[in-house]
Amino acid sequence: MSKRSIRFCVAALFISVICFSGVSPSLAGGLIAYEIGTADVGLASAGYNARAQDASTVFTNPAGMTRLEGAQLLGGGQIDYGNLEFSSGSGTSPALGSDEGGKAFGSDGWFLGGGGFFSYSVSPDLKLGMAMTGNFGSPIKYDDNWVGRYYAQEGTLFGLSFTPAIAYRVTSKLSLGGSVNAMYGIYKNKVAINNVDPRYGDGQLKMDDNTWGWGVNLGLLYEFTESTRVGFTWNSQVDLDFSSQAQFSNLAPGVSAALTRKGLTNSTIKVGITVPQQLMGSVFSQLTDRWAVLGSVGWQEWSKFGQVQLGIDETLNPKSLTQNLDFKDTWHFAVGAQYRINEPWLLNFGIAYDSGFQDTSSVSPLLPADAAWRFGAGAENQVSKTFLWGFAAEYMYGGSLDTNLQSDHPVALGSRGDLVGSYDNIGTLFVSAYFNWTF
Asked: How far is Cα 148 from Cα 341, in angstroms, rounded to an integer?
C-alpha cells in the first residue's frame, strides 16, 4: 500500500472517531445548527457555502473541494452551554406543584458537539470527500416532577450525518459537487401520566427509537475572479420514520383499565420527522490583502417538520397518545468579515438572524425555540503550509417565549392541567476549537 493510501486510511479512521464527540444542537431558529466545530462558529455562518477555505466545505458545499490542494483533514470539537429555564406564571394549575424544571438544555445546560471532514484530490479537478457530523436536533430534559411534566419530561431528537461527497471543476470558474446524506436519527420522548389517585404518584409514557434516513446535497461554486466567488446549495429533505410500542409504567389500576379499553396500552406510536429541505446562497469577496467580506441567505421548509407531542389530555377518558405541533418555514441571513492581522493570524467576525418557526405566544415545552440572533468571533493561525488551527465562539440569543397551554378539566379529574409561563432570555454559547492538516 502506498504512503498516500495509508494516509487516506488513517485519515478516514481519525474522522470516524472525531464525529462521535457529539451532535451540535440548536435552541432557536429551527433545529438545524450551523455550529459544527469549525470556523463557521466565529463567522456566525456568514459565507457558509462560498468560503471553501478548509475541509469543512465537504459538508457546507461539496463543490468547494475543488479549491483545496492535496488531501485535507479537519477535526473540530465544541462545548455548548444553553440557558433554557421555565418560569411558571400565576395561571399554572396549583395542583401541578412549584418545580419549574431546572436547566432544560442538555445535561444541566451543557452539551458536547463537533465534526470531522476529509477531502481527497484524485486530480486537480476531481475531488472526493467525507464528512461526519450532527447539525440537527435538540436535547430537552426537565426535572421529572416539574409543573409541565404532563406535557413533556424529556425530548431528545438528533440526526448524525455521514456524507460521502464528490466535486468536479467544470471550467476555470465553475465547480459542481454533490453528496449523499446518510442520517442516523435518534429519538426519545418521555412524559408523565396523571394517575388521578395521589397514592400512586405519576405514571409515565416513553418512546425510544433509532432509524436511518437518506437525502442528497447538491452544491455549486462560481468564481468570478480569484478574490470573489458565490456558492449555492440545495439540501433535500430527510425522512426519519420513528416507530415504537408505547412504553407505560407505574399506571394506577383505573388509568390502566381506561387505556386498555381504548386499545392504547399495546399501541404502536409512529412519529414521522422530516428534516426540512434547505436552499442557501453565499458570497465571499477578498476586498484587500487584509479584509474580506462574507454573506449568506437561506430558506428552510419547517412547515413539513411533522413533530408530535406525546401525552394524554384526560387519563380517565383517553382519546390519543399524540398531538401534532404546527410549524412554518424560516429564513436565514448572515453577514461577516475576515481580517488578516499578519501572515499567520486571521480574525473572523459574523452576525446572523433566523426567523421564527412557531407561534411564540404558546410554545410547546417539548420545543421551546423560535427566532434567533447569532454573534460570532474567532481566530485561526496558519502554523505552516500544511497545518492550521483555530478557535471560535458564538452566542445565539433566542429572546423570550411564552407558554399558555389550557386543559378542559382540573388536574384532579385526570387532565394535564393549565401550564402558563415563559422562557426568558433563551441563549446558547458555542465554543469551538479546530485543526486542519494538508497532506
From this structure: 51
